[in-house]
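Sequence in, structure out.
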Amino acid sequence: MNPLLELQKYGQSVWLDQMQRSLLTTGTLKKLIDNDGLRGLTSNPTIFEKAISGSKDYEPLLERMVSVGAGTEEIYQELVLADIGDAADVFRPVYERTGGADGFVSLEVSPLLADDTAGTIKEAKQLFARLGRPNVMIKVPATPAGLPAIEELIAAGLNINVTLIFSIEVYEQVAEAYIRGLERRVKAGEPATGIASVASFFVSRIDTMVDKQLEEKIKATSDPAQKARLEALPGKTAIANAKLAYQSFKHLFHGERFAALKEAGARVQRQLWASTSTKNPKYRDVMYAEELIGAETVDTLPPATVDAFRDHGRVGPRLEQGLEEARWVFAELEAVGIDLAAVTRQLTVDGVKLFSDSYKQLLAVIETRAKEAAGMASARPRQALGPAERNVQDALDRLAALNFGSRIWKKDAALWKNEAEHQKIINNALGWLDVAEMMHGRAAELESFAAEIRDAGFQHVVVLGMGGSSLCPEVFRRTLGPQPGWPVLHVLDSTVPAAVLALEKQLELARTLFIVASKSGTTTEPQVFYRYFFDRVKQIKGEKAGANFIAITDPATVLESEAERDGFRRVFLNPADIGGRYSALSYFGMAPLALMGGDVRTVLKRALSGVRSCGADVPLTANPGARLGAALGALALAGRDKLTLVTPPPVDSLSLWIEQLIAESTGKEGKGIIPIAGEPLGAPDAYGKDRVFVVISTEGGATGDAASKLAALERAGHPVLRRVLRDPLDLGAEFFIWELATAAAGALLGINPFDQPNVQESKDNTKRLLAEYKQRGALPEQELVAPGGGLKVFAASRAELGGASSADDAISAHLERIRAGDYVAITQYIEELPEYDALLLRLRVAIRERWRVATTTGYGPRFLHSTGQLHKGGPASGVFLQLTSADAVDVPIPGEPFTFGVLKQAQALGDFESLAARRRRAIRVDLGKDVRAGLELLLAAVEAAARPTATAAR
């Protein structure tokens, strides 16, 4: 049996907490009614803001309204009333079949009227009259100004959904207002029949706020008994609150006073459970829905919770079970100093503000969309595919045949692989699809914590991470820059001793917050960074050092335990079903953004816009993620596998994040899309036929001569895809669109885009080499092929370089192994400095201009967690130039016999071993202690090898 249908046996109706026009146009809403027993729908400004900003559903009506000169408020009413009216018509048969008990659709009065009784009454009556349907409910907030409005509107015969109820006390006031309104009707000789009302009791937000206070108290106590007492309470307040409120409902509506109204035909005011999706990943995703099943109630569920409950919901009449425990929870909360009345008052204030902000944002979105409809906005992203147009259309047809748009949202692992071992990985890697919604619900929590850190006097925030846990914060750091009045964000993802010391010199350690970011909790680099800086802070602050640290990790990791042991200020537990490179919109990206003072709320709203533009009901031809993925996959299969990223400022660092996402996701099974980031544009004849160019820019952003060069490339037949962001805050949407595009490209390539087998291999090599160092006190030596001239060249064997006797000859012989369609990867284990970047860029251009191949570069060990997977698992078309140097100063790692310098060296050797084991064409060049001088010598050797005369002589 379908658990959703089973709920009706216990007297509970399920309403959908969602509204979007595509629910109507695709028939999805009708299917939910027919198949899942859906009996109603609720909306609010937040829902409409997401729907209108995140889909193309409203364009026809927008264009029509703009053409007649309608203003923003008028357009808003027309869009919203059209959806509500049409949805009410879909539910009308339910309303008729249940005798008016169900089949309702709710629309909220403007949240800006929350403190205006007269204004609320006036607007509610206008909306109800305009809709003209008996199965519409008008939502009114349970604020002090809303309560008299509720009574008046019930007395006037309107259906009312009372929203934003958090406390039992306020609930009882709401019920009284409903009853008084009915009594006034009866006294005036008006019928009590045909009027319906629900009291929307909010659930999960209570646990979110109370759990936070409990967490703070748990951290603050050293008494084991008190700690155990506190640890017994998280996740229990909201359910206890609802269960006891239900007892009030029974008393109010099944007592003598309401009996007379029942005789007159009045209906009880059912309790409606709102905010029923769990916000804490530790809790069962259907926890609230399962615990609050009871007669004469309504449960509003967002789409994800509907799907989850259908899949694994457990049905039973639990609403009246555990009442003694509920009373115990209330008593315990009071005993440990949690003021539940204060919590619920604050939640009401926050709820009104949230809906008011969403309403204002909705009007702003409508204004923007109206401008777009009028042709006043920038041109939309387009794809200039040239001869490849047919390939991309075929790829879209393939995705459509796979039913990709629907199946990915059902998290169907068979889209990519059928083998059990792959499906196990995939099934635990698709949480990124839902995380923007989850994090949007936690924006206030992040903003509050960020304000706490700022107000505590912290001047710097440092992310100690690697790969997926550090690249998104790095993009925000470089794109947005320091925010006035907020701590400066730094990212450490290098084990080079000079890099560690250079960062430390910028910090006042006592006023620095360190974020230890690791999904697994055991990643080597974040672990050694943590040990080093914890030791340094402890020397200053002693046992209070933990107050300068927070962690972001999966639940139940070693890092979570270590954070508790060391008294970390906070631990953010990320959903476990999100891989590192797909974690930008999770705590890994959003917590650093909030802490640097970034507009995390808007970034997440933009992300939700991106999510909805790629929704299950959006045709693939209109789905930006699917279209981009189809282009990338089709072009790669056609031989254009060098994805050349053109990202002018201010979003130039976005290419680093995309590079990791694409390389680590697609580079396996001998296949892969090779991202080329940071390579300057050249003339068309500098490129082979293996390129596709993707341009990501902001409206009005400076592009230099890129436009003319791209136009020339387009004329020459190279595919050029253009994407335009309104401003850097659109990164939220862009992250998601690229994630979905990568998943789509993976389906076309026939690979699992969610594993990274060769990344682990390099990690294992490093661990083995460090173990050898612990035993012998030294790392193994590579074969020195060609010394002299300030450079040393190492290779797997001397023979592969033709017996070269000098470093210059060895480098030249190595480069002569380049063939058409190859790419050259320069990987450097040195400090990241602008002067080194400039020399590496010259190196890349010299190689590209001579051999007409793509070039990439990456700082170690960062690239090991991104392009490193592609280097070993992708196509054998890479030619590798690994650069290392001696360390002028080394840095010890507390608790380890090896230093950062030794760790860096082991990582380089382990990386090279993996390349050699796969017979990749690779050499290592040691630059000596003077890195700049070594890079200049290397550049001279490459430029000499690239000269036509030198080539002809050889």
